[in-house]
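Margin note: ligand = adenosine-5'-triphosphate.
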Amino acid sequence: MDKPVRIAIIPGDGVGGEVMAEALPCLDWARAGGRDIQTLSLPYGAGHYLATGETLPEAAFADLRDGCDAILFGAVGDPRIPDGRHAEEILLQLRQGLELTVNFRPCHSPLPGHAPDLDIEVFRENTEGPYCLQGSTEPGRAVDLAIHTEPAVRRLLLAAFKRAATRKRPLTLAHKANVLKHGHGLWVRVFEELRRDHPEVASQGMHADALLCALVQNPTAFGVIAADNYLGDLISDLCAAYIGGMGVAPSISWAPHRPFRCSALAEPVHGSAPDIAGKGWANPVGMILSTALLFRYLGWEVEAIALEGAVSAALESGAKTRDLEGTLSTAAMGKAIRDRLL
Ligand code: ATP
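Resulting structure:
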């Protein structure tokens, strides 16, 4: 018999809880099909922070790191905490603490017949760059430090080369090494080295500004795109627009070198969307497709395909939330997907 898989559930804030409520029955469905899944529900987010002052306590983080295999995450961010301190600490502790270097954001539209020729997959470095939250605000001057380390850059690029080779897709590195000579210079150096080791992959580096222009003019020319944390964030949101918007875009992050038992975190690309939170308008598709990515990461390909198929079948039948010009609530959309799970 398979070993039980222990998944930590962190719904977080805003629409995070609403979309998570539609993903959890997908775990029940996999369980009913024979997967041995245990869950650990964790309360961390704005409500917990405001009530206790805790973001993600050290002991809870250690339990999760050593006692879980993966995390299913909703979103964090709450207007009651305008500086976003709790969200930063939770996300940073998870991403950096678990060394989840690789953030994978596939951009294949789940909407039948929509952007059928688009096949972009963004590999975003997830722990460094200017998002390391080191810097200072001084009178008349502000500094944000961007840190890039060779092990993380190499891990991200290796994962991107591996994916491009397996799927026989072109690989593009987005960078600004012409200006950011040190940090992006490191990216280009490691990229050039790996290009020599992977002659089977059609690869090129591009300045990010030119890449964005080309991505708008001719998106189907791109395959795998690798980028640092900042550029990857921007590029993947642009790509989300091609596949139906923020509500449908999934992601998963992982630590290829597996330093801890807990080595993956699946979450939708969108944030906590305070503008629509509590209204039942959030699209659960991004969260449910992120759950499918987690199934695939765990080696449960059959379940991943079934879940992705159910999402497409539901959308094809006309089941849509408001962001896709439909009328369904978050819960009704979740049910429409589950009704099509074979
Ligand atoms: P973060 O910085 O945490 O990624 P953000 O401030 O960039 O978050 P989001 O919270 O992702 O922004 O929201 C961006 C826009 O997308 C908002 O207009 C929001 O309503 C919309 N949006 C986000 N998630 C969903 C969803 N699941 N369904 C429908 N619309 C969504």
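The chain has two domains: 1-101+249-342, 119-242.
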